[in-house]
Amino acid sequence: MSVNKVILIGNVGKDPEVKHIDNGVAVARFPLATTEVYYDRNNNNEKKEITEWHNIVLWRSLAETAEKYVKKGKQLFIEGKIQTRSYDKDGQKMYFTEIVGTNMMFLGKKEDQEQSQHTQFNQAQNTQQTSQTAPVDNLINEKSNEEPPF
Questions:
Q1: For residues 20 and 63, what is the distance between their CA atoms, to the nearest angstrom?
Q2: What is the span of the domain harbouring residue 35?
Q3: What is the pLDDT at residue 110?
Q4: Phi and psi (nearest 5°) for 103?
Q5: Does 42 fall in a domain?
Q6: pLDDT at 111 over 70
Q7: Residue 146 pLDDT greater than 50, yes or no
Q8: N or C: which end of the chain has fewer CB within 10 A?
Q9: Distance between CA 65 and CA 81 in Å, rounded?
């Protein structure tokens, strides 16, 4: 048994290049940067960053979505597989490794996520206030002499 699975969270390096090949099938290509942060214990715990660049390839509807919404700097979650292709350049065989994406999710910047959570929290607070301040008389049918169902 073998597994070829990649999960990346990173930032788009440039806007996708989208081409339509045979029968109008869309293919998008763009670089994605992932950055690892660590502290160098041998150098006064100096903060170090290592950035890896990944060549992302998306097909069909994922490529069309990327064409519309993926822009340089956007943070993405990409799930897919590693694929290596080769080609001849001046008689020498060259290899090219890429990530063929099978799933993509848009991730916001921290400010966007905080704003979204703040809005959801405010909506929940407003809903609670409305339900707490609603008069009980509105819940009882005025023509009925029955007890309320709560």
A1: 10
A2: 6-132
A3: 52
A4: -150, 140
A5: yes
A6: no
A7: no
A8: N
A9: 19
* Residue 141, in any domain of the structure: no
- Give the other-Cβ count within 10 Å of 30's Cβ: 22
Q: What is the CATH number of the domain that holds 58?
A: 2.40.50.140
Model pLDDT, residue 43: 86
Residue 140 maps to a domain: no
Nearest to 79 by CA among 58, 109, 60: 58
Residue 122 host element (H or E): helix 110-133
Q: How many domains does the chain have?
A: 1
On whether the CB atoms of residues 8 and 34 are closer than 8 A, the answer is yes
Among residues 99, 30, 96, 34, which one has the least CA distance to residue 67? Answer: 30
Give the integer Cα–Cα distance in Å for 137 and 129: 17
Phi, psi of 86 (to 5 degrees): -130, 155
